[in-house]
Structures are given as C-alpha cells and as structure tokens.
Amino acid sequence: MPTEFNFFQHWYPLSPVEDLDPERPTPVTLLGMRLVIWKPRNYQNYRVFLDQCPHRLAPLSEGRVDDKTGNLMCSYHGWQFDQQGTCTIIPQAENPEIVEKNKDNFCVISLPVKEENDLLWVWPDIKNSELAAKTPLPLSPQIDASKGFVWTSIVRDLEYDWQTLIENVADPSHVPFAHHGVQGNRDKAKPIPMNIIQSTIDLIEVSLPRDLPTTITFQPPCRLEYAISLGANEKKLGLIAYCVPVSPGKSRIVGQFSRNFAKKLHYLTPRWWDHINNRNVILDGDMILLNQQEYLLQQKQEKERWKIAYKLPTSADRLVIEFRTWFDKYCQGKLPWDQVGIKDTQSKINDNKLVMLDRYQQHTRHCSSCRTALKNFQRLQIGLLAYFIVVVSGVAILPDSLRLSVGLPLIITAILGIGISAWLKFSLIPKFYFIDYIHAEK
Q1: Which H or E element spans position 198?
Q2: What are the structural domain ranges in the chain?
Q3: Measured CA distances, 167 to 162, 193, 222, 235, 252 (Å)
Q4: Class of domain 12-134 (CATH, top level)
Q5: By mean pLDDT, which of 13-17, 185-189, 257-261, 400-404 is the weakest?
Q6: When comparing pLDDT for 233 and 296, which is higher?
Q7: Can you tell me the mean pLDDT for 176-181?
Q8: Residue 35: beta bridge partners?
Q9: What percent of the chain has pLDDT over 90?
Q10: Is it the case that residue 227 has pLDDT exceeding 70?
C-alpha cells in the first residue's frame, strides 16, 4: 500500500460542461498549473492544454478558435494548434516545412480529459497519461438519471485553501450556525454522533446514525459527498462537493446537488435562481469565517500542531480530526506547490468584503446560466426605462380626447415598468455581483 499521496495522479473536475463557452478559450488553474480549456470546431469534446504558447510563452487562453481551421490560435503571433496540441501553422515561417519537421518540439502540452456526469475532468500528471486511462473517475453514484436522480450544479472560486475547504465541508455541525436561516437553524442544533466506517489513503467513510441517516464519503483528493436518506420511502438527497486545489490560499468548488424526488420542482426552478438565492448565499456565509480561520491556524502552526491549536472535544469533530490526520500521514500536512515551482505563502486576512464576496468574479462569469440571466435582466431593465420615457413623451403630445382612454393605460403600464426596472436594478441584478453577509443580522 502506498504511504504518500500523489495529488497529480488523480482526476479533477474543472467545470460543469454546460458552463463552458465553445466559442472561446477558458483559463483555469489547477494545483498551481495555469490551463486553458477550449473546443476545436467540428470536434465533439473539449481539450485542456497548458496555458502557454511554445513560441514566446504567451497565454493561449487569450487566443481564439480560428474560424477557418477550427484550431486554437495564439493571439500574440498567430501560431495554431490542433486538438492534440500539434502546431499546424506558423505565419512567420519562410519555409512551411519548418512546421512539419519540428511538430514535436513546437507542440503544446495536452492533458488527458474526459466528460462524465456533466463535468469536464482533467488529469494533471503530464508524464503519466497511461495511468490516467486506467484510473476511474471519482464519480458519485447519486448522479445517475437511470436511478431516478435529478441534479443541478454550481462552480465558484473561493478565497481560502483546499485543506480549509475540505475541512469545512466535512463539518456538518457548522451548518445551523454559519447558515442559520439559509440551510439550518441555530435553535435546533444538537449533538452529531459520528462513526468512522473506514479510513485509508484512498477513502474515508463516516456514518451519522441520526433522524436522517447520512453517510459522508471523502475520496481524496476532491470528492466529498453526503448521501442522506429521508425516511423509509427511499427518498434520497445528495450533496457532492468536488474540492479543487487552485493555488496557495485559493480553491474552487464544483458542487452537484441531487435528489430522487420533487422532480417537477427541479425542472421548474431556473438554475440561476437557485444559485443567487441558495448556493451562493451558503458559500457567502462561510467565506469570511474560513479566510480568517485559515490565517489564524497557519499562525498557530508555526509554534504548535493543529491538535493543540484546535479544541475538538465532541463526536461532531471526528471527521475533521480524521481528515487532518490523513493529511498529516499521507501528505505531510502540505500541498505539492513546490512541485510546480510555487512557494506556499502565508495566508492573509482580507477585510475587503467587496473582494471576498465578489460573486461576479468568483461565480457569475463562470456560470452560463447566471451570465445569460444577468445579460437579459440588464437589457430588460434598460428596455423598461426606455419604454417609460417613450410613453411619457408620447402621451404628452396626445390630443386631449385620447389622453384618458389611451394615455392613462399607457402611463399605468409605464409606471409599472419603471417599478420593475427599479426592482431589477436595486434588488435582483446586485445578487449576481455582491450581497453582503452579516452573521449578526441572520
């Protein structure tokens, strides 16, 4: 049995496939490696390359998918690469044969990719694609339409480290307090007994024998899943959190939320509505707490171990203890930033809530549903304002005989429109950008 965990020899989900734009390259960072996701024209699947052109190391994520060839073009000098990463065009080449003779030397590094369970997966170990083909994806059994499940997904970048994210998701006892009124109720909080079913380098499994029997599964490095049984009628609820290490002090969560009941409600609820009113609110509730917790733990660990820095006396803390013990035993308590030439820098407390809770940068720009909804609402808001101006101007020049019969209904609709426009501008649209989260007011 291996005694050291290799973060690079595992599959990671980068994004829900539905959130990717097939018309333009998408930058993403995994384990400190800057990557670019793109889709060749007339090719079914996305590709993932290292985000650097071999010519002068310009970012390919700033490039474009060429209209004629369907290949990825670097915007710096126009070099092009096909779906395998092979250089196909060098516009500056005096002799076209230079491309063919040097195709191995001029290629872009392409990573193994798969699309499964509506997610785009990548294997970050550049030198071991053979192992990638043999390694199964860390899929959830609850993302399975054949078993009656429906699900929705979300992606968001977070202002704290991967280990802090894992620890937080593995801690159900924080929910009634950090998410009071959103997902829990502090007045109903109670002890949470936990039983460790198994704990190995590849899997930690915990059961919660309570009113709603729950199993929590941590499949390193990224899948942390809750399987909740709702009574004896075989209703099941799932929370699948894929926790992606981005860089020191940064992580990404790719979440999937499944159930095998209330399917009509699932299909009637817009994805963006669930994001702005539920999922992002929950993530907002954790952000400030975890950013500062991470900083303080790092400060204390300069002098003492987490076992001393933390006070973990209850059964509800058992999975946190188990994860921290796993992290120490198999990872030496650190992520492999040194393997990609990155220093594991000290976290800092960020008191700027506009940055910490910036939903647009962390989520909206990544999410196709929220991007589209935001654009439509902004257009609607401007359209309603324009309608008000046109109606008021038009009614002003109507003959007196028509102002009551025609003008009054128009004015009423214009006033309603301006009210809706104000609601869009000051209430709905801000939810795609920033909503302050104040725990004392919850």
Answers
A1: strand 195-199
A2: 12-134, 145-348, 369-441
A3: 9, 17, 12, 27, 14
A4: mainly beta
A5: 400-404
A6: 296
A7: 95
A8: 28, 50
A9: 86
A10: yes
3-class secondary structure per residue, 106-119: CCCCEECEEEECCE
The answer to whether 156 touches 285, Cβ cutoff 8 Å, is no
- The residue whose two tokens read 């075989």 is 234
Task: Assess whether the region 12-134 and the region 145-348 belong to the same CATH fold.
Answer: no
> 398 — phi, psi (to 5°)?
-70, 150
Alpha helices by DSSP H, listed for 138-199, are: 162-169, 175-178
**In 3-state terms, what secondary structure has residue 271?**
helix
Nearest to 1 by CA among 268, 248, 199, 238: 199
The DSSP letter of residue 180 is B
Rounded average pLDDT over 186-209: 95
Give me the half-sphere count of Cα atoms (radius 13 Å) on the Cβ side of residue 336: 16
Burial of 306-332, coded b for 16+ CB within 10 Å and e otherwise, reads beeebeeeeebbbbbbbbbebbeebbe
323 closest CA partner among 166, 213, 210: 166
Residues 35-58 pLDDT 10s: 999 999 988 899 999 999 999 999
Query: Which of 24, 53, 35, 25 lies closest to 122, judged by CA?
Result: 35
Nearest CA to 81 among 61, 97, 94? 61
How far apart are the C-alpha atoms of 297 and 311, rounded to whole Å? Answer: 12
Per-residue pLDDT at 1 = 59
pLDDT at 195: 95
Residue 3 has pLDDT above 90, yes or no: no
What mean pLDDT value characterizes the chain?
94
- Integer Cα distance of 246 and 34 in angstroms: 9
Distance, CA of 273 to CA of 293 (rounded, Å): 30
146: amino acid identity, one letter:
S
Give me the CATH code for the 145-348 domain, please: 3.90.380.10
Is residue 364 over pLDDT 80? Answer: yes
Instruction: Kindly state the helix (H) or strand (E) to which residue 395 belongs, with its residue range.
Output: helix 368-396
